[in-house]
Design a protein that fits this description.
The structure is a homodimer of 889-residue chains.
Chain A (H helix, E strand, L loop, with lengths): L4 H5 L6 E3 L8 H18 L7 E4 L1 H10 L6 H16 L12 E7 L10 E4 L5 H9 L2 H19 L4 H15 L9 H19 L7 H15 L3 H9 L8 E7 L10 E6 L11 E6 L3 H6 L5 E2 L2 H5 L1 H18 L3 E8 L2 E9 L4 H13 L5 H6 L13 E2 L7 E4 L1 E4 L2 E7 L2 H9 L4 E5 L7 H6 L2 E4 L7 H9 L3 E3 L4 E4 L4 E4 L2 E4 L3 E5 L4 E4 L4 E2 L5 H13 L3 E5 L3 H9 L5 E5 L2 H4 L4 H9 L3 H25 L4 E5 L12 H14 L4 H14 L11 H6 L1 H22 L4 E6 L5 H17 L8 E7 L2 H5 L1 H5 L4 E4 L1 H9 L3 H14 L13 H17 L4 E4 L7 H9 L4 E4 L4 H17 L1
Parallel strand pairs in A: 14-15, 15-16, 16-17, 24-25, 24-31, 25-26, 26-27, 27-28, 28-29, 29-30, 30-31
Antiparallel strand pairs in A: 1-2, 2-5, 3-4, 3-5, 6-7, 6-9, 7-8, 9-10, 11-23, 12-22, 13-17, 14-21, 18-19, 19-20, 21-22
């Protein structure tokens, strides 16, 4: 079925297939549209689908490789055309009753940027008269001809649509008419003639009168459009290989514009917005397909067709149901009714928003159309987070001030503040604020909690602001380079607009838009279908899903979203809060170990409280606590701030110069050229064991306290960050076990010690590290930074955009796992489990919430992923989809 | 021979071997000393070597594991002792003519920190009288007894030697004598009694009178000393595993202190300083071995023995020759002459300075003793660089002010300067200066050229200062933390000493010593033996040796040292020189591409000159040129400097605030959190192709100019740094080839394009990168940084010292290749050559000059290493040794 064997035997590649020869399995060869039209022809019968043929993607690839049509292509097209003419009983270019065809591109997947449709091909100065005669409708004939000339000139030969539209305007003006539909035959003749003159001027050629020439040029234009800029950009974003190529579909025209018994429309098998189980769509009477989508006339709701053309409507709804059950998915179709007769021109799976996707899934299962697993696979996991956030009211109108990176989804609004202190003060006063900064750092975190949203002018999706905002579920727009933030004057400038502290602003973290003033927002509502789908996902997935959560609030939210534990509690926040930082500073500035231990002793009870809150919130579930990770200088003022303060004090006598100098001396010692690969993680624990000892004391005491109070101990997993060497984990494990023991907590099923694997070396020597670790948790953010030598803070904004632009990478490796990083993770997993077969493997990086990365983690035997609470539902679905797809392999 | 089968059959491990049972092959089991004494016994006959037995290292390991002597050990020792008594015809503790023994430790390799010798064991209150009677020399007997008690108390039981010495002083004072040798029998009796009292007070036990008990305690003390602090520290530095254990040697005493026909000494088979082929050494008449080394009496030169005891001397020189030819290496022996009869107590390969090592090698080959390959293996490559530098006159006396890291070998002296400008000015005025800085950066490099040496208070062996200094062959002491450098006041403070600009200072980059004032230096002299050895090495090595050289001067020096090409020319220095930096700044500060290209056009001819110089210096040899690598902000002032300047300008009105602000704006944009993994390497080339285009233009024009002028074109290898992605090298290669072509240079055997492999990702996807690269050069410094997540600038000084201290690592991974980095290099090599079998593989990191790393590179099929010019001779030898060792495997 799939090959034309006669041609094959002659040694010729078959480049052309009639619709009656194809099927949906031949998508790669015939493109999505060609395969679906062929499938519809088989399913609905030839009388329901206008006949035609498809030129294969292989022909396109051959053309692109050699910059020439394959030798036999024109002969094969001619043969297919002859078959079509026989079938239609009409001939292309016939001067009495000509066959007209449409030419459409069609790649494997629907792809914007490819060549638009050319309709009415086959008309010329002669056949237009034949069409007029045969239909008895000269206006229809001339309108079709001018449309063809216009489309051909624009789409095939690149004549600017503005120049063509100018001609229409000129003719309308000359004739004194307002609407296109008011142009009479004479006017349309003149317009056609003007188009042809323009065509000659711009292309240096006469408009082709020979239908075969029209067809050949159109086919070549489709091929060429595969390498057009927009198509390339789209493929890049969607990771579609360049060598797929596109097919070309040539189809007999049917006419929806033959009066009030004709029409064209689009029909969905279910409501495309809500997913409700009833057909929906739009149509126009007496119109061709492009009129419906162009917006020149306002289409009617599909339900109206039931009264206007009940028979056709009944046929259509039957066909929609048939297509849906045949394709086992919600369908998006195009149809034309020509003088009462229904033709189906296209069908494909309907793109749908999250709520429609989950509604369809649940209904399809209850209708017996799909199994739960099949239903899950119809859902695009990456769209689901829109169901969890405030969104801008779709009805609202507003002006976008500027755009940045959509760094953490959802919409938020409030008055502008420029620093964390103001955010906290406003938050305590119950005011809504948006924190606006050039970029953010560890000590801004308290401000994140207090603000409704975060806006930065620098940094990308993996910047500090983005990561923390996602972690807290705060909407965030990052790297909005159009904004100049001046902290000194507390203003943000966008072009001529100056925003001051207290001005209102709205940000849309789903789109990256920044809007001056407030816009109506819509809150997410609990969606029962979504909950049902999540339950199925939990039944079908293998991979566990945990959340990254640092506070009891985060933990409670994570549980609500279905997290099965905490995969990463970053304890640095326990040193950063306003009541902690002075003590932490005192610790860092201590002159000796005694002073240092005294300062730590003051922090201990505060941290114990934090841990108790966390453990109670996660009763019965595992909690992974990472010991202190960031370099100590993050807790001190910046070097340049102190240098400036020292200079100021020197020049003006203001400020305590000695105190400034003391701080400066310490900061100079701690300051690092490359802090990301400096004194942090377990290196701190080895240099200053007293810090880790204090943390473990607090953890152990909190565990014992919660156990005694509630009768339920947390499943504690203490995690050592940034391990390179076997000896590091060995020493730190010894410290953890010893201090826990001294505080009444013994190693066992409910208290294990493991490590974060986030350095290439650790992956390469994982079997040695595994000897001393009960679990590995892959810190994919840092592992990406080191494997690629990409500083997240520096590269995201400056390089990655350019790299994506130049097609060096498809997506940020901080978003979707880089294959080389994946290799290291596989190595580490295998090496680790080769010595400890039950080694628990998890992931706690941004990749834990990315569906593609989740599929990789599932396929490679990891036990769980951990992601920001807000990503947990997406991760649950993505994990189920990965498991289902794996079972189908 | 190697096992006592009788014991084995009984199911007992043999823990004790008589000297007559051992051989030098049994070093692992018997330790170096035990194996050599056994070998000498076999070689020279039992009459030349006092009899004895060795307790194996396995016994020690068993003891350390269980904290108890193995069950059968005491019985085996008793049996061996019985055999020894039979052989000697004397019994231990005999009250008439007692057998006395020495007890010595002996691990596989000679190891300081292990237990010292116990001599005269077997004496007690009874047998001392027997010894007096048998020798007719009561003073000798009592002197032997007090020595034994003193040594046993100190060495075996840890009684402080100061406390023991106090007793001697007290007795001498009471007796009114000055010298130990003036103590008579009575005084020695009293002293022995005082020692025993002290022993009882400090240990709570009586001094053991039972010789078996004495022996057992001594054996246990040797075992325990294996885990002593100094021994552990030594093993750590020398990478000796803890589980080797030590053997114990028990040997019949012979006495060099029986009057003027007796004596003890050390003898080398050749001069131990110069390597001259004549025996050398020291001896003392009427003395025991420890008198020769203690320095209490001044020993005589060995040649004197020829006249004093011609027969013994002749025997000794014969034996030395025999041992040397038997061991095929220069020997270091200990001997004793007892009443005219010569005994050999120990032999081992002589440690020797570089000049002696090469002299021995050359002489041994001409004497037919060794092949060239064998001779090469007797040389310790890591000592050779002392032959290439100024050294401090060994006769000079001086006071060390403080010490730092020995970062680049050689001694240098001059007046202190605190910045590069002063260094350059002084250099031009012909003055010798030492550049003293807290740390150095890229723009200090010009100052390195002008200075005689570099001293920093921060940073380690892989700091910028160390790397650049080594590259230029300038002596350098880094991280001398005892010095506080205050750039503002131009002073350096060491404790109470304040050094000002212009003060004279001497640094020893070989030892890390810093000395106030000038000290006599010795210049290296051309050493013909060294040149001979290098020639052999060149014949025997497989690995090519190139040099890292950035300037014609470096290149000329590299050639002199035998480099076969330049493996790394860092072009950043061509942007840093005083006449370049303003142009580079103009380029970076340009508002648009035109301005940027204009600024670059001014740099181009200057760089072309640089390249021409380099190509002429390396005529006929390959030259690898790395395109610009460091981030652009390295060419601008620092952020904090500008912030301070802006604040100062704001407060005082001094300075051009607008100009400062303009610079500041640019620096803020370019500033990076982690520059090492930021916008550098080919990322720069992709962001700003015009920079690389200018460089390639300059390279191509220089190549053509040199070819036309000299008729000899360089073998050009253009290297793209920091490649991660296939597309990066593809695009950059295209750029290089295109611009070269436009300037008259075509890809071919004399012009290839490759990449630096310095990121883990590149290693993992090397087969893709290899498609577009003619060579890989492993940048092991950066690969170490990323694989281990170790920022060289930050970690070397702060963490690595602690890590070495805590035994987490043996050596800096920036010095000797880390095994995980090695794994990545192997992967990259295999992957790359799997698609391109003739892919050239080189190394251009600090590891290219490290003998251990060179052995790894040789074993893994790399083609060449590239190292600083000064390391080239060492690398040539190390490469030959690696090849020879490989051929022996």
């Amino acid at each position: 079925m799939s090959k034309d064997w006669q041609l094959e035997i002659k040694g010729l590649t078959p480049f052309v297939y009639d619709f009656s020869q194809g099927s949906r399995e031949m998508r790669d060869l015939l493109g999505g549209k060609g395969a679906n039209v062929a499938e519809m022809t088989r399913l609905l019968g030839a009388e329901r689908v206008p006949a035609g043929f498809t030129i294969t993607t292989e022909a396109c690839v051959a053309y692109l490789e050699t910059n020439n049509e394959p030798a036999t292509l024109s002969a094969q097209v001619a043969e297919a055309l002859a078959r079509l003419e026989t079938l239609a009983g009409k001939r292309l270019g016939d001067r009495d009753d000509p066959l007209l065809v449409s030419v459409r591109s069609g790649a494997r997947d629907s792809m914007p940027g490819m060549m638009d449709t050319v309709l009415n091909l086959g008309l010329n100065d002669k056949s237009v008269e034949g069409l007029a005669k045969a239909t008895g409708n000269p206006r229809f004939a001339w309108d079709s001809y001018r449309r063809f000339v216009q489309m051909f000139a624009n789409v095939v030969r690149g004549v600017a649509s503005e120049a063509l539209e100018e001609q229409i305007a000129a003719v309308k003006k000359a004739r004194g008419v307002a609407l296109d539909t008011d142009l009479d035959v004479e006017a349309l003749r003149e317009l056609t003639s003007r188009f042809m003159t323009l065509y000659r001027e711009q292309t240096g050629q006469e408009f082709p009168q020979e239908p075969g020439d029209q067809l050949a040029q159109s086919i070549r234009a489709v091929f060429d459009s595969w390498m057009g800029e927009r198509a390339i950009a789209y493929r890049r974003i969607n990771r579609i290989p360049d060598d797929w190529g596109t097919a070309v579909n040539v189809q007999q025209m049917v006419f929806g514009n033959k009066g009030l018994t004709s029409g064209s429309g689009v029909a969905f098998s279910r409501d495309e917005i809500t997913g409700e189980p009833r057909p929906s769509g739009d149509f126009l009477l007496n119109a061709q397909g492009e009129d419906v989508v162009s917006g020149a006339r306002t289409p009617q709701d599909l339900s109206k067709l039931a009264t206007l053309m009940p028979a056709a409507y009944a046929q259509l709804t039957d066909i929609l149901a048939l297509l849906e059950s045949h394709y086992m998915d919600m369908q998006d179709t195009e149809f034309t009714i020509e003088e009462g007769r229904l033709y189906m021109l296209q069908t494909r799976s309907a793109k749908r928003p999250a709520q429609a996707a989950v509604r369809f899934g649940v209904d399809a299962v209850s209708e017996g159309l799909l199994t739960k697993a099949q239903a899950l696979l119809t859902i695009d996991a990456s769209t689901l987070d829109t169901m969890l956030h405030n969104t801008i009211d779709p009805q609202a109108t507003f002006t976008v001030l500027t755009s940045g990176v959509a760094a953490s989804p959802g919409a938020a609004q409030g008055k502008i503040v420029f620093d964390s202190h103001s955010a906290i003060a406003a938050g305590e006063a119950g005011r809504s604020v948006i924190l606006v900064r050039p970029f953010t750092e560890a000590d801004d975190v308290a401000g994140f909690h207090a603000a409704k949203g975060i806006l930065t002018s620098e940094g990308g999706k993996a910047s500090h602001a983005a990561l923390v905002a996602r972690g807290m579920g705060r909407p965030c727009v990052c790297g909005a380079g159009g904004i100049e933030v001046d902290l000194a004057t507390k203003t943000a400038r966008v072009g001529d607009v100056v925003l001051a502290e207290g001005d209102e602003i709205t940000i849309n973290g789903t789109t990256g838009e920044v809007i001056a003033g407030v816009v109506a927002l819509v809150s997410p509502e609990p969606n029962p279908s979504f909950l049902t789908v999540l339950e199925w996902a939990d039944d079908l997935r293998r991979l566990g899903v945990r959340a990254n959560a640092d506070t009891p609030d985060d933990a409670i939210r994570a549980r609500e979203y279905g997290a099965e534990g905490i995969g990463l509690c970053r304890t640095e926040h326990m040193f950063m809060a306003a009541d902690r930082q002075p003590k932490m500073r005192a610790m860092i500035l201590a002159d000796n170990e005694t002073q240092r231990r005294d300062a730590l002793a003051e922090l201990r009870p505060l941290q114990q409280q934090d841990f108790e809150g966390l453990f109670e919130a996660m009763a019965g579930l595992p909690v992974t606590i990472r010991l202190l990770d960031p370099p100590l200088h993050e807790f001190l003022p910046k070097l340049f701030e102190l240098k400036v303060a020292a200079e100021r004090a020197r020049l003006t006598g203001e400020g305590d110069i000695e105190e400034i100098q003391r701080l400066l001396d310490r900061v100079e010692v701690l300051n690092e050229v490359n802090p990301m690969i400096g004194t942090r993680g377990c290196r701190l624990g080895i240099l200053h064991p007293e810090i880790y000892e204090m943390q473990v004391e607090a953890i152990a005491m909190a565990t014992v306290a919660v156990r005694d109070r509630t009768g339920e101990a947390p499943h504690l997993e203490v995690m050592i960050p940034l391990v390179n060497y076997e000896q590091e984990i060995e020493m730190m494990r010894e410290l953890v076990v010893r201090v826990a023991h001294d505080n009444g907590l013994e190693l066992g099923p409910d208290f294990i010690v493991g490590t974060m694997i986030e350095l290439p070396r650790a992956c390469l020597v994982a079997e040695k590290i595994a000897d001393h670790a009960d679990f590995f948790s892959f810190g994919t953010n840092d592992l990406t930074q080191t494997t690629l030598g990409f500083s997240r803070d520096d590269i995201e904004s400056s390089i990655l955009a350019r790299y994506i632009d130049r097609k060096i990478v498809d997506r940020s490796p901080f978003e979707t796992l880089d294959p080389a990083v994946g290799e290291l993770i596989k190595m580490a997993g295998w090496n680790g489990r080769s010595v400890k077969h039950d080694l628990k493997l998890g992931v706690c990086g941004a990749h834990g919430g990315d569906p593609d990365s989740i599929a990789f983690f599932d396929a490679n035997g990891l036990d769980y992923v951990s992601c920001p609470p807000i990503d947990v539902p997406v991760a649950r679905i993505a994990a189920a989809q990965a498991a289902i797809r794996r079972s189908l392999e």
